[in-house]
Design a protein that fits this description.
InterPro entries: Cro/C1-type_HTH (IPR001387), Lambda_DNA-bd_dom_sf (IPR010982). By secondary structure, the chain is mainly alpha-helical. The protein has helices at 3-10, 14-22, 29-39. α1 crosses α2 (14-22). The radius of gyration is 12 Å and the shape is globular.
Length: 52
């Protein structure tokens, strides 16, 4: 899926998707929720720890 297609699916502009993908975006809970729904991944919550 292209960044433009993802932007359309989550109803956000292309530059928003580009900022999230590049790691430059300031996390927004609403946008993260849309990304989780469309991509089928969990982006919020407790970090996964790889312990010893």
């Amino acid at each position: 899926m292209s960044q433009a297609e993802l932007g359309k699916q989550i109803n956000e502009k292309l530059h928003v998707v580009q900022e999230y993908e590049s790691g430059k975006a300031i996390p927004n809970q609403i946008v993260l929720g849309k990304l989780e729904r469309v991509l089928g991944v969990k982006l919020r919550g407790k970090a996964i720890h790889h312990g010893k």
